[in-house]
Each structure stands twice: as C-alpha cells, then as structure tokens.
Amino acid sequence: MKTPTAKDVSDVANVSMSTVSRYLNRTAPVAKKKIIAIEQAISDLGFIPLNAKPQGIRTKEKLIGLMIPTFDSSFISSTLDGMDPEIQNSVYRLVIETSHWDKTSEINVIQRMVKQGIEGLIVLVNSLSEAEIKAIVGELPVLVVAGVSEGIYSHISIDNIAGGRLATEHLIGLGHRNIVHLYSSELGNKDSLQRSQGYRESLERAGINYNEKLSLDGGYRATCASRAMQSLIEQGIEFTAVFAANDLSALGAIKTLLQNGIKVPDQVSVVGFDDSPAASVFLPKLTTIKQPLQKMGSIAIQQMVVMIAGKTVSLPSLELELIVRGSTDKVVFIGEQSSPC
C-alpha cells in the first residue's frame, strides 16, 4: 500500500501544498476551516510527517503562553482584543495566566507554562528581568509587550517618555503650572516610570519647578487614584491640572474631584493615558494619550508565530496620539492663579 504524502493530504483536504506545509511547519497562520480539513485528511490517510514524533502529533495542541499581570485593566483587555482574531486564525491556542504584579508568581507561571509545552511565550508587562526569564525558558522564543527593552528579547512598545511629554505639554499649553502627576509604583510598571520622566522633562523645558508633593501613587487603579486625590485635596495643596499615567486612575481622580464639588474641566483639567473604551463615554469625556493597543496585540501574535518558525521578526513603529476631549481646558486666572483646593 502506498505511503500517503503531503500531496495526498493537499488533494483530500482541497487546499494547496503550501497551506499544508504552513500548517505542518507552523510557519504562518492558517484559516480554521482549512486546519479542520487538513486534520481530517491526515486522519483519513494515516499520514505521518517526516519530522513528526511517532505518536500523538495530530492531537497535541500547539500552545503559546501569555503572561499578564492582571485582567483588571483596560490596557490588558484592549490588547487581548487585538490578539483574539489572530490566534483564532492560527494553529495555536493561547494559554493565559496572571501574575498579580508578583515576581514569585511570574516565576511559577512561566515554569508551569514551560511544563505544559508552550512553543513560545508572550510577556505583557514584566516584573522579572529578561535575563531572569531566559534562565527559566532557555531558548524558547519570547516576545515582551510594553515595559522597557533590556536587549535580550524582541520588544513591542510605544515611546512612553514621549507620551508623558505629550500629555504634560498639552496641559502646559493651556496655561497650567501646578500639575499633579498620578503614577504607578507597582513592580514592573517601567512604562509608568517613563511617563513620569516625560512629565518631569516637560516641566523643566517650560521652566516649571518640579514639586514632589504633586507626584502621587495612583497605582494604575481608580480606587488608588481616588484616595491619592482625596489626600491631596484635604492637605490644601494647590493644583489646576492632573496627568494620570493611565485612564483608570484619571477616571478615579475625576470622580473624587466631582465628589468634592470641584468642576472638571472648569476648575481642574485631567489627562489620562491609553484611550480605553471608557474614555469616550465617561462624563466629562476624557482627554487622553491614545495607544494602538489592539494593533500591539495583533502584532504580538503574528510575530510570535514568525519567531516559533525560526524566522526574523519585523516590528513596526507604533505611534501615539493626543485625543482632546472635554476633561481639559485653559486654566482660569482670578488675579493670581488660583486653585479649587
């Protein structure tokens, strides 16, 4: 009896030889309906690829690991939205685990994924250094999304320093000088540190002295930002604007300002970062720095498939955009510059 070939699989599945090759070698995404046809043909013919293990090749799942710090983030959810159609149109299944911003958890998560047999790992915001990750995964392909590149792995991110400058310069251009900055001190939030750097650079360029009392830990969370703003108000520290390092903390700040009878943007202007879905529906609508989050997610899956195939990745540049909405306005002067606090 003739030994079935890849050409036989191609004929039975009614797909091209190149499609069969892409599927067998995992070199590029293949449409789901074609995967089903190829798998059925392999099963019917009893075809075994030359580079296959003797047993179980047709049933073994192809896995890509994705480690995230939390699900409780519009940044994470928007990036996952970009990943979903790409993973659905590939031969891979995405294994997602959270580390809760904890280095020990990150180690445990990565070790579990490696034992599961992942073929590549995507790290979405990392606390571990790239060297620490490599010590766990060895030669496994790794792609880092967001954070700061350390030169070991391919990296997808935006220019957070430029984003911090863009947000702060918008407020300075409206006449604001007492500008609060809500950052995140959580381990791994290197992007927040860079946005803070952009904030400070913009103040310096404008001849505005940096005031450490105006830099507060908003934790990238609405509740943390709300508490920080309430403390600032109760201390009577003067300010007329807020630059929050993400949209969640910006919305938390606005909530607290309004609860204290402080009008936004009439008395205090607020800028966020991300352009999350809530930014355009919250009232007032939030001025923010738009990140191409879905595009980042889509590129991450595409390039991980390329990396698993042993090919060189090609990462496009990602642009930021200031989206001006209703939460910012020119500073109000009444004699001397005044503050609602």
UniProtKB/TrEMBL annotation:
Leader peptide range in chain numbering: none
SUPFAM superfamilies, alphabetized: lambda repressor-like DNA-binding domains, Periplasmic binding protein-like I
GO MF term (any one): DNA-binding transcription factor activity
Q: Which UniProt keywords apply?
A: DNA-binding, Transcription, Transcription regulation
Q: Which residues form the HTH lacI-type domain?
A: 4-59
Q: Which domain of life is it from?
A: Bacteria
Provide the species name.
Answer: Vibrio inusitatus NBRC 102082
One Pfam family per UniProt = Peripla_BP_3
What InterPro entries does UniProt report for this protein, alphabetically? HTH_LacI (IPR000843), LacI/GalR-like_sensor (IPR046335), Lambda_DNA-bd_dom_sf (IPR010982), Peripla_BP_I (IPR028082)
Keyword Transcription: yes or no?
yes
PANTHER family according to UniProt: HTH-TYPE TRANSCRIPTIONAL REGULATOR GALS (PTHR30146:SF109), LACI-RELATED TRANSCRIPTIONAL REPRESSOR (PTHR30146)
Q: What is this protein called?
A: LacI family transcriptional regulator
